[in-house]
Amino acid sequence: MVALTNEPHDRLLGGSRSRAEGLLTKRPRGFSLVELLVVVAIILIVAAIAIPKLLHSRIAANQASAVGSLRLLNTANITYASTYNTGYAAQMSYLGPGNGGSPAATQAGLIDTVLAGSSGNTSAKSGYNFVYAPGATDTSGRINSYQFNAGPAVVMVTGMSYYFTDQTGVIRENDTAQASSSDSPVAG
C-alpha cells in the first residue's frame, strides 16, 4: 500500500522537507582555505611586481637630488667667490649657515645645514655622500678651483651613478666608478 503524505511538495524537491529547507537556507560559514590562499597568492604577486619598481623610483629620486645638490653647490661656490672676493670656499661647511648670526666668510648661509655638513668637506643628503676638494691657494691666497664628488651611500640601494663637478659648472656622471673630469656630462 502506498502511503500518502500531507505534503505533496516533498516529491518535487527530491526528499524530505527538512533536507530541502537545509539546502535552501544554508548560511556560509566564512572563506575556505583555498579562497584565502588564492587571495594571499595574488597579493604576493602584486607585491613582487611593485616593490622593485618602488625601489627603482627611490634610486632615481636620489640621483636627481644629487644632481640638483651639485648644481646648488656650484651656484653657492660661485656666489661665495663673488661675495667675499677670496676665491672659492676653503671648506664646504663655509657655504652653510654656520651657527647663525650674520653671514660671513665662514658661514655664508648659501646652502642648508644638511648639504653643508657639520664641519669640513663632507656631507650626506638623500642617499648620496658629497665630498668637496678645494684647489690650492695662489700667491694672493685665493682658491681658484674646486671639485665636488657625489657617490651613493649604498651602491644599488640608494643610487647607481657617481657624479663630479668643478668650477666649470659641468656635472659629469660615471655608472661604474668615482666620476672625474674626463667622464661624460649629465644629459639635460
Structure description:
The chain has 188 residues and is an alpha+beta fold. The protein has one domain. The protein is 37% helix and 15% strand. A hairpin with a 4-residue loop joins strand 4 and strand 5.
Which key features would you list for this structure?
single chain, 188 residues, alpha+beta, 4 helices
Give the helix/strand layout.
Layout: H1 9-13, H2 17-24, H3 33-84, H4 113-116, E1 122-125, E2 128-134, E3 146-152, E4 162-166, E5 171-174, E6 184-185
Antiparallel strand pairs: 1-2, 2-3, 3-4, 4-5, 5-6
Number of domains: 1
Instruction: Detail the poorly predicted runs.
Output: none
Shape: elongated
Count helical runs: 4
Note the gap between the termini. 99 Å
Strand content: 15-25%
What is the overall pLDDT average? 89
Q: Summarize the amount of helix as a percent range.
A: 25-40%
Biggest sheet layout? 6 strands, antiparallel
